[in-house]
Amino acid sequence: MANRLFVSVDLDGLEDAIESVQERFDGVSGLRLTDPAQAHITLKFLGDTDPDRVDDIVTALEGAVEDSGVEPFEAEFGSLGVFPSLSYISVVWVGVRDGQGGAELTALHEAVEARTVAMGFDPEDHEFTPHATIARMDHAGGKETVQDTVKNEDPDVGRLRVEEIRLKESELGPDGPTYRTVESVSL
C-alpha cells in the first residue's frame, strides 16, 4: 500500500503565533482553518509512494541537503498571502519575510526537486513560494473578509532556527490530514 509523502520544514514552536494569526479569520464563511501544530513549508510533494522507496528517498534528501550548501539558518515568518489569487482564493498562508530565510528555503527546494525528479517523481508545475498554509477556502462566502485581511494586515509570526528537513507522511481523515515524520535529515 502506498504512503502519501512530502518533504517539509516544520514550524515547530510557532503554533501559538500561527493560531493568533488564524484568529483574524474566526467565523469567516467558507474558510477552514488548518491545525497550527501541523504548520509546515512543503519543499516537495511526492504523493502516493511505495514504502519500499523510503530509504532511497532519504538518501536522495541527504544528497539534496549537501547539494544545496544550506547550513542551519534563521527564518522569520510573517505577512499573509493567498493562492492562486485574491480574486479566487483557495489557500491562505503566512510567508517568509524578505531576506529572512527565503533564499535558503528556495535552495533546499531546488535541490530536493532535482534529486526527486531524477528518481522519477513528477516535477513541480508552479513556482516555489515558501509558505505555510493556515486556512483553505471551501467556498467564497467570506472572500471579501479574507481579501481585506490579507491586503491590510501584516502579522508577525516569529523566528525559527531551521536545522533539518523532514520526510513526512500525510494520512487523510474525516477531520483533515494528519502528518507523521518518517525521517529527518539534518542540515
From TrEMBL:
One protein family per Pfam: 2_5_RNA_ligase2
Catalytic residues of the enzyme: H40, H131
MF (Gene Ontology): 2',3'-cyclic-nucleotide 3'-phosphodiesterase activity; RNA 2',3'-cyclic 3'-phosphodiesterase activity
Motif, HXTX 1: chain positions: 40-43
Motif (HXTX 2): 131-134
Broad enzyme group: hydrolase
EC number, UniProt record: 3.1.4.58
Recorded catalytic activity of this chain's protein: a 3'-end 2',3'-cyclophospho-ribonucleotide-RNA + H2O = a 3'-end 2'-phospho-ribonucleotide-RNA + H(+)
Swiss-Prot/TrEMBL keywords: Hydrolase
UniProt-listed PANTHER family: RNA 2',3'-CYCLIC PHOSPHODIESTERASE (PTHR35561)
Family: Belongs to the 2H phosphoesterase superfamily. ThpR family.
Function, as annotated: Hydrolyzes RNA 2',3'-cyclic phosphodiester to an RNA 2'-phosphomonoester.
Protein name: RNA 2',3'-cyclic phosphodiesterase
Gene: thpR
